[in-house]
Automatic annotation (TrEMBL):
Protein name: GntR family transcriptional regulator
Ranges for domain HTH gntR-type: 1-69
Domain of life according to the entry: Bacteria
Keywords: DNA-binding, Transcription, Transcription regulation
C-alpha cells in the first residue's frame, strides 16, 4: 500500500525529469488513486501537500497543474544596493509596507552588533516586502536610538532603511558578516506571508555599516519565502 509521501516523491521526480512540464495537467485524483492503489483521499492529500510546497497549483473543477519552478525571483546577496532598489531595477511590481516600529528587550547579539550599551534603547523596524501584491519577505532592521535619536518617532514611516540613512547624510554602505539559516513559519509569519507551515523560510542575518566611519547603522534579520526565490551568492 502506498502512502501520500510515495505519491509525492514520484510526482516530484517526474516533474524534475521533464515528464511533466510547467502548466501540464497532472493525473486526476481518481487516476492517481487507481495507479497507486490507494483511497482517493490519499491522492487528494498528496496534491494538497504538493500545492503547499509550491510544486503544483489547482484550477477549480479542472484539476492540478505543474507550477513553473523557474519563474522565481533572483535573490542577490552581494553588493551594497538596497533590496527595494534591486527589485525595482529588475522590473518587478514591488511594494514595501511598514508593519511595526517598537523598542526591543535587551538582546546580546543585537546590541553587540550595534555597539550599543545595555541601558540604550534599540528599535526594531519591520517591513513587509511584496511583489505583484504577494508577500515574499519580512525585513526587520534593528537601530540604536543613540545613533538615530528620532527613530522612535519616525520609524513607522520608513519603508526603505537605505533611503532613511541617505536622508541622514550617509551615502556609502558596507555589509557585516552574513549568517544564513532555515526555519519554518510560526503563526505570525504564516499570517504575514500568507503561507502554510510547510514552506521553509530562508533567514538572513547581517548588518549595515557606514563605509566612511565603519559605524554600525543597523542589524538586520530577513525571512524570505523560499518558494519564491532563486539564490545567487
Amino acid at each position: 500500500m502506498h502512502d501520500e509521501m510515495e505519491i509525492m516523491d514520484k510526482l516530484i521526480a517526474d516533474m524534475e525529469a521533464g515528464i511533466y512540464e510547467p502548466d501540464d495537467k497532472l493525473p486526476s485524483e481518481n487516476d492517481l488513486a487507481r495507479l497507486f492503489k490507494v483511497p482517493r483521499m490519499t491522492a487528494r492529500k498528496a496534491y494538497e501537500k504538493l500545492q503547499d510546497l509550491g510544486y503544483v497549483y489547482s484550477r477549480q473543477g479542472k484539476g492540478s497543474f505543474v507550477r513553473d519552478q523557474h519563474q522565481r525571483i533572483p535573490l542577490l546577496f552581494s553588493g551594497n544596493e538596497s533590496f527595494s532598489r534591486k527589485m525595482i531595477h529588475m522590473g518587478y511590481d514591488y511594494q514595501s509596507r511598514n508593519i511595526f516600529c517598537d523598542p526591543i528587550e535587551y538582546n546580546h547579539k543585537v546590541y553587540k552588533a550595534l555597539e550599543a550599551q545595555p541601558e540604550e534603547r534599540v528599535f526594531r523596524i519591520g517591513r513587509l516586502r511584496l511583489i505583484d501584491n504577494r508577500p515574499i519577505a519580512i525585513h526587520a532592521s534593528y537601530v540604536a536610538e543613540s545613533m538615530f535619536p528620532d527613530i522612535g518617532r519616525t520609524g513607522r514611516d520608513i519603508t526603505s532603511m537605505f533611503d532613511f540613512y541617505r536622508g541622514k547624510g550617509y551615502t556609502g554602505f558596507e555589509s557585516m558578516k552574513t549568517l544564513l539559516s532555515v526555519t519554518y513559519p510560526g503563526r505570525k509569519e504564516r499570517e504575514l506571508l500568507a503561507c502554510t507551515s510547510l514552506i521553509p523560510l530562508l533567514v538572513v542575518e547581517t548588518g549595515c555599516l557606514d563605509s566612511q566611519t565603519n559605524k554600525p547603522l543597523e542589524y538586520t534579520r530577513i525571512m524570505y519565502r523560499s518558494d519564491y526565490f532563486t539564490y545567487e551568492l
